[in-house]
Amino acid sequence: MSKTTRRDLLRLGGAAYLGTLFSGPFALKALAQAPAASPQMQHDYAGWEQLYRDKWSWDTKTRGAHLINCTGACPHWVYTKNGIVVREEASKDMPSLAGVPEYNPRGCNKGACGTDYLYGPHRVKYPLIRTGARGEGKWRRASWDEALGIIADKMLDTIRDHAVDCISVYTPVPAVAPVSFSAGHRFAHLIGAHTHTFFDWYGDHPTGQTQTCGVQGDTAETADWFNAKLILLWGSSPAVTRIPDAHFINEAALNGSRVVSIAPDYNATTIKADTWIHPKPGTDTALALGMAHVLMRDKLVDVANVKEQTDLPYLIRTDTKKFLREADVVQGGSAAKFYVWDTKTKKPVLAKGCWGEEPPGGRPAVQPAYLGRNTLTFPDGTIALGDLDPALEGSFKVTLKDGKSVDVKPAYALYAERIMRDYTPKKVSEITGVAEKAIVDLAKSYGTVKPAMIISGGGTNHWYWSDIEIRAFHLLSSLTGNEGKNGGGVNHYIGQWKPVAVPGVLALSFPQGAARHRFTQTTIWTYVHADAYDAMETVGIDTRKYLRASLDQKMMPIYPREGRDPKVFIVYRGNFLNQAKGQKYVLQNLWPKLDLIVNLNLRMDSMALYSDIVLPAAHWYEKLDLQMTEEHTFVHMTEPAIPPMHESKHDWDVFTLLAKKMQDRAVARGMSRVFDEQFNVSRDFSTLYAQQTDNGKLESAAQAAQFILDNAPATKGITLDMIRERPQRFKANWTSPIKDGVPYTPFQFYTDSKKPWPTLTGRQQFYIDHDWFIEMGVELPVYKAPVDADAFPLRFNTPHSRHAIHSTFKDNVLMLRLQRGGPVLEMPPGEAKTRGLRDNDWAEVWNDHGRMICRVKIHNREPEGRVTMCHTPELYMDLIEGSTQSVCPIRINPTSLVGNYGHLLFRPNYYGPGGTQRDARVQVRRYTGLIPS
Amino acid sequence: MAKQITKPQKQLSFVVDLNKCIGCQTCTVACKKLWTNQRGEDPIYWRNVETRPGKGYPRNWENEGGGFNAAGEVQRGRMPTAGDYGVPFEFDYEARLFEGVPGRVRPRPAATTAGFASWAPNFDEDQGEGTYPNNYYFYLPRHCNHCSKPACLEACPNDAIYKRAADGIVLVDQTKCKAARNCVQACPYDKTYFNTAIQKASKCIGCYPRIEKGVATACVAQCVGRAMHVGFMEDTASSVHKLAKVWKVALPLYAARGTEPNMFYIPPVLGPTMEDAQGNLRTDKKIPIEYLVKLFGNDVPRVMKVLEEERGKRLMSEPSELMDIMIGRRSADMMLNPLT
């Protein structure tokens, strides 16, 4: 950013312009002096024009990527001249898929100014040690040796005085920088520290999809949007949150697809949709079930698909609300095999491929971390029905093993009864505020146009009951046979969770195996260690009761164990504090428990500011790493355009140095071997460096990157040189094959190859008969109103921003100049008027959890009853007090605490409680206090 | 006497498809990072994207005059003030983050509820007009039109402005500019700027260094909405030619200002309809046709009809050449070589 001097500003604002405020024809005197001949012929093209030719020139061009929590994964070129990185540009060399528009150019407003963080004022240049209070911004410069020595000694003190599990290492999102991600995980793994989940904590985990499909989450790559003939954008605005992919929506529309946007606000994507449906915030499930009502009523249901692919034909005991299990009927029967009613033989028949059924050859040794179970070794066609014709309706009697008779009904019959009763268009219209005709028209359109795709986003995924919303979306998709179809299905785009080459990342991160690693679930970790208040007792839900049971029964993990407090917190590649819901409690209660907070960062963000030691990390253009995403099916890379500036280092190098320092200090202090009771192993700290680098085989980031590629089916055979040449397409993927030239869409292993779904029932599972689901009344996906535990009048909406990726770029000067210079609370005109607020006024926003003072932007695209602020401005930005997370509590839904129930089990980022901030309610009033100059 | 302008051998031309512009500002940033990042250039955005209806950048540019009158005389428009451009916010991050200065990092100048500082490019982003749920807005990307009859060129008393014979790009010769600023006043689009720090006028250079190498302009090459076409109008195979001359669906902005722009817009035909008080959808579009006519002229209704008919064909799964051109499955079909 060039500097405008004060004098320039004065000139700009002052006299230079004042004399020219009149209008009318020019005095022709000046013009008359000009020659009438063609003036353009007089200019020497080789003369002054060279000025700009020189500007568009460079010495080197290198591969660049932006290693932030963004799904874009946009390949860029980075241009360097005289040792200075001058700019970047989308590389535009993504290979094309057949028949669909190409991915090029792929980038956005933020990616186009990535250099700003390289040279900008936020850059951390040297190791810094805090000299003031946490958050004050007072530091002294230290050497790497000193800083790492303090960190190593504090970790050894912690192991001596407390336990190794009191050391916590937080780094999120492997997909965007798997080498950097693995660096800290590998270090934590080797010393026994715990690491964190993030996908769930960030509220991005599609919990309902895991419940329904037994997968951590899977979506179509975005090029597949073009194949949809009907697109339902449901709480998703790609033009803002998926900028590199938004074009596929508009291109699909031009290609004859119908686009419906379902969102309370008239957002930047909705403006190009054919139809805008704006339900009241948080009532989307009711709308979905109203559509299901019409599909059932008008016989628009794909019955064959429902019978084969879903658990809806499975028999439910009317006495217990539980599945009829083999163990109920047969002595020694399995508790994980289930029945359907065969209409031909009029008998209950065991469904194939249930959890309790072993594939031929026994349980496979390899268990993908992102699936409930590995069903890929079942033969193709396992779940095909053949001669079986399961009943969807009716009521039947079954004799149990003790001779008693019990009434059973197919889950479909139970569900249809409720849908037909509770979700008539009239009732749904009352709940959602959407006109009856609009509901019916939408349902009919969804039931007849094929393929039809649901694209969901943060608007539907950040609620307390968001799991039900996605269950209901899958219901619609299954009822219409859209699952597994190119251009169909349910695709959630929120969070950057998909390091497609996941086995390679795991192998690099956890050399002794993931079973020997301490994973903590971050939502629980924060809730417990920050002693966060959630106000849920006001709506009759005792979160702590369920949480205690979940932890006691080892359904969900927490570290440190045995009630110990975390003591050392090492954070990198994540702005933990800034993003933390319940931020007030985190600062008040968790922060004081931490003896040492270390942050490795390229910029002084809020997390760094509130740390004790800040280490300088290399910028994305100074390091080598890979990048992957769910949005497309190509792996690409970044590499050093220049060496790391100042004293910054690649994350990979920092953790090898830390391993070396820890080794040296441990040996010097006589702590060479540390016994780890939980895993019954003796950890050898005297060889830590050799372990971290695998005896020198993983010394460099390039070696680590190639190791990841070599150790995953998706990337085996791909080399760094190949990626340097051009982004390379994956060779395999999670739940569908990669087909040459065809956009990836998930679940074809189940829908097409007809292997069992990786769920308890071996089908898409809509009925969950776990006690807690039954207790909460959600054994079936039914509408649950937003949780109004905050007795305040306005819904507080915190979507993603066009001008930032979470907190990254929030403080970028160029981005702020294209906004209002700081964060704003978007407020509908009526709500502003009743509070006497004018555009650009300061306002106070508060509830029982905290307070924020911010500016107001009056926005007529917002519905009354709601205010919106793009989430998580940095804690040093232009607010007078607080930030969005000051008023957003941590709320844990008991159903997400369930474990040990078939496919509902804890694995990091696979299943666990998430972020639910959209239920938050606030009050707003004019701020009348002092406005600091 | 008006200056004579030799018709260029080829005219670099742009088509912006407003059905595809998503308002992401990637073009704005791409341009700024490549060209206007030197001393005095902070308030200058050769390329910008504004929300319409809205005040635009610089503020109220469309009501400030300029261009040619009916008699063909170039008009002196009002010179935008520094506040109309938006005085660029400055932030003292070092003090807060590294030197322990308390408080928050405030933008300077701080916006006030009154006064010239309460404005910035894109200040009214996404606001538009109308009352929820019948409000409406869309995005309008703008840069120099490289007009066939440039008012800036006509108004320059120093002959610093010329139109290149090879490609029709209009440039301000930085060695000849003598700071008269007539160009800023004459351009009806306010797309010539005056850099007060170096006392020179500047404007979009059509990325001529890239064009000379056959490479698409920075804004188009990085348009992630894939909303822009760039090419030479004389090239009958180019998408700009097909859209503007064959299909005639791309229209100049404020053509009545008389400068003969070479940037053309496909009006927004996608978008929802109005709804009645009961929430039932009506059939009329949210963006009033009168507003589009105001921007793009009397041809708008005809163009909208063509666009609706052609999209209608695709809705019925029939082929449409026009929709295929607008979709532009391969970037190379929409522009000169996008690769650098």
Can you describe what's shown?
The complex is a heterodimer of chains A (933) and B (340). In chain A, 27% of the residues lie in helices and 15% in strands. Chain A is built from 32 helices and 33 strands. In chain A, helix 7 (178-191) runs parallel beside helix 19, helix 7 runs parallel beside helix 25 and helix 11 (284-297) packs across helix 16 (436-448). Chain A starts with 5 loop residues before the first helix and ends in a 7-residue tail after the last strand. In chain B, the strands form five sheets. Chain B has a four-stranded mixed sheet. A two-stranded antiparallel ribbon of chain B has the order 2-4. Chain B starts with 11 loop residues before the first strand and ends in a 13-residue tail after the last helix. Chain B has a single domain (12-86, 121-333), classed as Alpha-Beta Plaits (2-Layer Sandwich). Chain B is 23% helix and 15% strand. The relative contact order of chain B is 0.18. Chain B has 340 residues and is an alpha+beta fold. At the A-B interface, helix 1, strand 1, helix 3, helix 4 and strand 4 of A face helix 1, strand 3, helix 2, helix 3 and helix 4 of B.
Rg of chain B: 21 Å
Structural class of chain A: alpha/beta
The top-level CATH class of the domain at 143-202 and 497-613 and 644-713 in chain A is Alpha Beta
Give the fraction of residues assigned to helices of chain A: 25-40%
The pair of chains with the biggest contact is:
A-B, 137 and 149 residues
Quick one: biggest sheet of chain B? 4 strands, mixed
Low-confidence stretches of chain B: none
Strand order of the largest sheet of chain B: 9-1-11-10
Total number of distinct structural domains of chain B? 1
Shape designation of chain A? globular
Averaged pLDDT of chain A, please?
94
Terminal Cα span of chain B:
43 Å
Mean pLDDT score of chain B: 95
CATH homologous superfamily identity of the domain at 143-202 and 497-613 and 644-713 in chain A? Nitrate reductase alpha subunit
